[in-house]
Design a protein that fits this description.
293 residues, alpha/beta, Rossmann fold, 34% helix
Length: 293
Amino acid sequence: MQHLSTLVDIMRHPANAATPVRGALRYLAWNVARRLIDTRFVTELPGGARILYSNRENYATLIYCNGLFDFETMLFVLHYLAGDDLFMDVGANIGMYTIIASAAAGARSIAIEPVPATFADLAGNIRLNGIEDRVEARNVGVGDRPGMVRFTADKGGMNHILPVNGSGGIELPVVTIDSLLAGRDCAVMKLDIEGYELPALRGASATLANPSMRALIVEMNDSGLRYGIPDSEVHAFVLDFGFRPCRYDPATRTLTEVAGLSRHGLNALYVRDPSAGARLAEGRRVTVAGRRY
């Protein structure tokens, strides 16, 4: 059933919606090939960006079949960011959002990835795109206070901080987002840290209160329940800083405020910039699957 659900999602994805049969065949061929060979792929992204990844990773199917798998929020980043903006990618993994922000949109980025092996892949993708001068990559985790915590290290894009009573994993340092920024103005932040978003946001209170912080993209998939944190607590915390939940339609460049928690796939988008609509309308155009956005 999981394969069928994934296949349907791929066929409906905007990258494949015009040619769903082609998307389905691509998915089937990919699954046959990955059972036969262990290799690495480079996928071209909008704006001349590229991403290198292993076909064994749990996110690889979506990159190969869809490209911009978080379609709405990734295009929000592409349309919204400008060259003088600072983007913070918390839980960068191998760097999809960082590459989009800095290689395609031309913004500066801080990319945070704690697991050493994954951080090496992130650094490789930064070099692949020649954006070392625009990206500050940090091999640490984030939380509400500095210290050492244990992380899983064998779950690819789903690596996470182990609960207090958890065992195994590797011990790695965590710091606060406020200390990483050290007073610098951040325009947009994306957080995808497998349920630890609320402690990370608590360690970013000064950053969130800074008027320069205009939009947040936060993963919301109930993974915080492993720490006893429902998505509703994260949502309420963000609202307290004046952000509002929105949906973004990249085809029309329309940003619409919504009531309550609203997800773009697994992500929730929050905006605090009253001029965001005009800025999005004037943002760069990119071609995805033969269509201009």
